[in-house]
Write a structure and sequence with these properties.
Rossmann fold; alpha/beta; binds nicotinamide-adenine-dinucleotide; 7-stranded mixed β-sheet; about 15% strand; 13 helices
C-alpha cells in the first residue's frame, strides 16, 4: 500500500469510492483509464549549438462534462504514470467543484533550473506545436503547474495563435492579467485552502482567532494560505520548504519570512527568527490545530501518520497523503480535507479566466474572490454532508460526488455511435 506510484494511488482512491456507488462495470473500466495519452519526442536547439531531444506528455482523462483541463509541468521527475494520475485527479476536481471541464495534465521531462530562459522558450514553443492538434479553448486548456508560470503560458498563447493565424487567448489559463489573465489567479489555490479550512473550523464551532497552523511548503500555495490564515487571526507556528523547517510557538511573521526567501533563491534556509527543526519532515508532527501539507506527494505515510497531532489536515498539495495513512488518520478522528476539494481554488479561477476570455471581459478582483468562495464553500458543504451520511472520510465522499457527476454525464450523452 505504501510503495504505490501516483497512478496506483489514484486507482485505490477511485476504487474505494466506486465500491460505494452502483457503477456499471464498463463505466468503471472507462473512468479508470484516460481517454488519450500522447507522448511526443522533439528536438530543441540549445544555446551552445547542440540539439537535445526531449520527451513530453499530454494525457486527456475525460471530457464528458466539458473541455479537458489541467496544467503542464516541467520537471525531471515527470513520468507517464504521474501525468495519468494528475489528469484523473483533474477530472474529479472539476466535477466536484462543478465547473464545466474535464481532466487532463501534461509534462515535459526536463530540468528548467539547468536551462536558460531562451532554451525554456524554445522547448515550450516546440512542445506547444507538438500538441497543437489536441489543445484549444473548446478542446483542452492547459495551465501552469510545477515549474511553469504566466510567462510560459504567454509563449503557449503566442505559438498556438501563430499556428491558428489569429489570437487565441483562451487556449490556456494562468496568463498575466495584461494578456487575458484573471485577477486573483496567482493566489487562488492558497486562498482556496484557507477558505475551506476556515469553513471547516466554523462547522466545528471554532473561531480562527487563537488557533494554530503549520504549513509544509512555502511556495505559491503554502505562502498564500499562510498569509490569509494570519489575516484571519490564525497563528502560523510552523513553515517549511525543501531547505528547512521552522517552528516558533509565538507565531512566525509570514511576510517577513517570504521577503527573506525572495532574496534567498526562494529558500527559508538561514532565516534566524525561528527554531529550525531536523529532519524537516518533523514539522508534520508538531502539535497544532491545522496542518497544511502544501509541498509534494507522499508526505503523510503509514510511517508518520500515527504521530500527526493536528486535528485537521487540509491538503494544499496534490496527493500528500497515502491511502494507508488515510486509514490511520480517519481512525484517529483527524479530519482530512482532500486535495480534490482543498486545492481546487486554482482551477475554479482558471474557469473564471476562460469565461472572461470568451466574454472579452475582465472581472474585478473582489468579484473573483467572492465567486471563488461561493463555489468552494458549496463543494465543501456537499462533501462534508455526504461523508457524514455515508460514514466515510471526506476523500471518499469527494470522489463519490465527482464520479457520480461524470458517470451521469456519460450515461445521459450515451455511447457513440
Ligand atoms: P511551488 O513550487 O510554488 O512551491 C513548492 C514548495 O514546496 C516550495 O517552498 C518548495 O521548497 C517546497 N518543497 C518541495 N519539496 C519539499 C519537501 N520535500 N519538503 C518540504 N517542502 C518541499 O509549488 P506550488 O504551486 O505551491 O504547489 C505545491 C503543491 O500544490 C503541489 O503539489 C501542486 O501540485 C499543488 N497544487 C498547486 C496549485 C497551484 O495553483 N499552484 C493548484 C493545485 C495544486
Amino acid at each position: 500500500m505504501e510503495n504505490l506510484n501516483p497512478y496506483q494511488i489514484a486507482q485505490v482512491q477511485f476504487d474505494r469510492a466506486a465500491d460505494k456507488l452502483d457503477l456499471e462495470p464498463w463505466m468503471r473500466d472507462l473512468l479508470k483509464t484516460p481517454d488519450r495519452c500522447v507522448t511526443v519526442n522533439f528536438p530543441v536547439k540549445m544555446d551552445d549549438g547542440s540539439v537535445k531531444v526531449f520527451t513530453g506528455y499530454r494525457v486527456q482523462h475525460n471530457d464528458s462534462r466539458g473541455p479537458y483541463k489541467g496544467g503542464i509541468r516541467f520537471s525531471p521527475e515527470v513520468s507517464l504514470d504521474e501525468v495519468k494520475a494528475l489528469a484523473s485527479w483533474m477530472t474529479w476536481k472539476t466535477a466536484l467543484v462543478d465547473v464545466p471541464f474535464g481532466g487532463a495534465k501534461g509534462g515535459v521531462v526536463c530540468d528548467p533550473s539547468k536551462m536558460s530562459r531562451a532554451e525554456i522558450e524554445r522547448l515550450t514553443r516546440r512542445f506547444t506545436y507538438e500538441i497543437s492538434d489536441i489543445i484549444g479553448p473548446d478542446i483542452d486548456i492547459p495551465a501552469p503547474d510545477v515549474n511553469t508560470n504566466a510567462q510560459i503560458m504567454s509563449w503557449i498563447v503566442d505559438t498556438y495563435s501563430m499556428i491558428q493565424k489569429r489570437n487565441v487567448f483562451g487556449v490556456v489559463t494562468g496568463k498575466p492579467t495584461f494578456l487575458g489573465g484573471s485577477h486573483g489567479r496567482s493566489e487562488a489555490t492558497g486562498r482556496g485552502v484557507a477558505t475551506v479550512a476556515l469553513e471547516l473550523l466554523k462547522d466545528e464551532g471554532l473561531e480562527p482567532k487563537g488557533l494554530t497552523a503549520v504549513v509544509q511548503g512555502f511556495g505559491n500555495v503554502g505562502y498564500h494560505a499562510a498569509r490569509i490564515f494570519v489575516e484571519k487571526g490564525v497563528k502560523v507556528i510552523g513553515i517549511s520548504d525543501i531547505s528547512t523547517a521552522m517552528y516558533n510557538p509565538d507565531g512566525i511573521d509570514v511576510e517577513d519570512a517570504r521577503k527573506y526567501a525572495e532574496k534567498n533563491d526562494f529558500l527559508l534556509e538561514g532565516y534566524d527568527k525561528a527554531e529550525h527543526l531536523s529532519p524537516k519532515e518533523s514539522i508534520l508532527e508538531v502539535e497544532t490545530d491545522i496542518l497544511i501539507p502544501a509541498a509534494v506527494e507522499n508526505q503523510i505515510t503509514m510511517k508518520n501518520a500515527g504521530n500527526i497531532k493536528a486535528k485537521y489536515v487540509v491538503e494544499g498539495a496534490n496527493g500528500p497523503t497515502t491511502p494507508g495513512a488515510d486509514k490511520i488518520l480517519y481512525e484517529k478522528g483527524i479530519i482530512v480535507v482532500p486535495d480534490l476539494l482543498a486545492n481546487a481554488g486554482g482551477v475554479i479561477v482558471s474557469y473564471f479566466e476562460w469565461v472572461q476570455n470568451i466574454q472579452k471581459e475582465q472581472w474585478p478582483y473582489e468579484m473573483v474572490v467572492r465567486k471563488l468562495e461561493e463555489k468552494l464553500i458549496s463543494a465543501y458543504k456537499n462533501t462534508r454532508n455526504l461523508a457524514e451520511e455515508e460514514r466515510v472520510d471526506m476523500r471518499t465522499a469527494a470522489y463519490m460526488i465527482a464520479i457520480d457527476r461524470v458517470a451521469k454525464a456519460i450515461r445521459t450523452r450515451g455511447i457513440y455511435p
